[in-house]
Structures are given as C-alpha cells and as structure tokens.
Amino acid sequence: MSEQQTAGIIPLETKDLKRESGFRLPYRFEIDPAGRESPWWVTIVSIVLALAACGIFIALNGMNPITVYAKMLKGAFGSSFGVTETLVKAIPLVLCGLGVSIAYRISVWNIGAEGQFLAGAMAATAVTIYFPHLPMYMSLPFMVVSSIAAGGLWGLLTSIPRIYFQVNELITSLMLNYVALLALNYAVFGPWKDPKGFNFPGSPMFTAAQSLPTFGVSRLHLGIIFAIIGVLLYAFIIRYTRWGYELRLIGANAEAARNAGIRISRHVMVVMIISGGLAGLAGMGEVSGVAHRLMYGISPGYGYTAIIVAWLAKLNPLSLVVSSVLFGGLIVGGYSVQTIGLPSSISSMIQGAILFFLIAGGMAGKFRIRRNS
C-alpha cells in the first residue's frame, strides 16, 4: 500500500476514474450563502416536533398525550377564567420579551431579564415600604418609575463591562440574575419580612392604593395596558424612526454601521437600559397587580421564558404577542393537568423542548437542497 493511500488520500488516477464514470449524486446540501432566515414553516414544524417528543415522555408516564394536551388547552383557553389567567401570565412575558428582543436587534445577548425583573419588583416594593401612605395617583407612578429605573440600572451593569472591558454580556447578565435573586431573598427573609406573616418570606401586603386596578372580578390588571403600549412603541420605533433604522443596520452589519459613523457603544448602552427597564416594569406589574407583595419565588422564570418567546417570534412585535399568549397558556395549562396526576412542571418541559427544536430547526433551515448541474 502506498504512502498516499495510507494517509487516506485518494490518488489522482482514482479521481480520474470517478470523474470518467460519471457517478454523481443528483442533489447536494449546502448552507445558504445569502444567510437568509429559515422559512416560516420551520417554526410550526419545530413546535409540532416538540409536542411529539414530549408526548413520548407523557406516554411513558402512563398517560395519553392527546388527553393531556386537550386538558392543557381547555385549562388555558376553555373558559373566561382560563383566558384571563393566560393573559395575566402573558403580560410579564410580553414586557420581558420586548426587552430581550430590542437587545437582540443589535446582537446583544441579554439573558438577564430575570434579574432585571426582580430588580424592578424590589424597587416597586421599596416604594410601599418607605412611602406607605402615598395616595394611588402618586404611589403607582412612583412605583412604575422606580421599577423602570432599577431594571434599567441592572441592564446598565451588563453593558458597561461589555463596552469598556470587552466582557461577554452572556456572562455578566447571567451572573446578575443570581445577584438579584440573592438580594430578593435577603429582603423577604430579612428587613422587609412581614412581622404579621406567620414567618412567611414576604413583604407586607400592598394596600389598595399600591395595587394596580383589575378588570371586573378577574385578576387581569392594568399591566396589560403597559404591554400593549410597549408593543406599539416597539413596532413604531423599529419601523419608522431613524434610531430604529440604526438598530436594524447594526444588527445586519455592525462593521458597515461603524463605518457609517454610528456609535455602536452608545447604542448598546441605551438598548440595555431600555431592555432592563421593560423587564423591571414587568416586575412591578407582577408584585402590584398579581401577588400584591414581594415574596420568595415571585417569578416562575418569566425572564428565561422571555428568551424563548423572543426567539419564537423572531423579534417581530405582533408575533411576540402571539408567542407570549401561547407560553402564558402553557403555564396555566401546566397547572390544570395537576388534577389528572401530572406535575405542573410539564409546561417547563414543553418550553424547553420548543427551544431545542427551534434552535435545531433554525440550523436545519439554513441548509438548501441544490440540484447538481
């Protein structure tokens, strides 16, 4: 055996024989050189595959997947109570998803929405602790401003290391989530703990003047207006303003944007402040509109789920609303299947599966089948 054959190199004579034989595959796979997004149907296929994969685990648990999914669907959308509860869960997902989306527009990978959410919740609660007698027309705006400022500060703490020290924002935003969580635990187990709460780790209950008004007898609160306004502003800014155009340009080609005189570092800082502020506002809505107190476990992971929401929506504002309602329904549906013997964590399993198949589908969607000429 020759040295070339030993090294795994096909000799020239063999190559010539293959060429002369005319043996070729009629099609080939290649990555789309234009770098276009995957087709729209890839998202639908990814969701279907995720449900099918989770259905296997449900079946292994001795349950009929169709029955389980029907139960979840009915629990989330089968009654007025289910619909309003789904919308209640969708409010923080929309706001956090907006924050994540605007950062992703310029390829800033903010995965710190959870910490920014908690920072906003703590700032809103601080208003009720240190200014307990303010009337509603003063306390609620003060809580809104405080939560946006706190969330924005948490986002700023991520942007500064990236801009001045080239620290990856994935690391800083993730670590700041744990800092915010530990700060919340300290507050509710320590100085802000309700002395009348029977040792429950939570702040005193908010008064009526510190609580967002609700619609009718449901738990659907005024925070839904915040979410709607946020979506409309996001859509308008991205599509019709110069700043939105600059964000889109940075996201498409940062080098071209830099050559055009756009200060990318300034945009990163502003975007992270806005991103954190939106997540902070979501935290205010949760403590003032739903829980009416700051407590341990105030977030079931809204900030992390918002990453999947934004990815599923492909940063589109209208799609963001749809995906937020979908995942809000998953959370509510997860609670409803507890009555048939399954844990509510099934919704987390489905969320994770959807993210997995979305990533896989996005990669697969970049491949194109070409006919060999």
TrEMBL record:
The keyword Aminoacyl-tRNA synthetase does not apply. The keyword Transport applies. InterPro entries: ABC_transp_permease. The chain crosses the membrane at residues 40-60, 80-104, 111-131, 137-158, 170-189, 220-238, 268-288, 294-313, 320-337, 349-369. Keywords: Cell membrane, Membrane, Sugar transport, Transmembrane, Transmembrane helix, Transport. Its main location: membrane. It is found in: Cell membrane. It is a multi-pass membrane protein. This is Simple sugar transport system permease protein. The lineage of its organism: Bacteria, Bacillati, Bacillota, Bacilli, Bacillales.
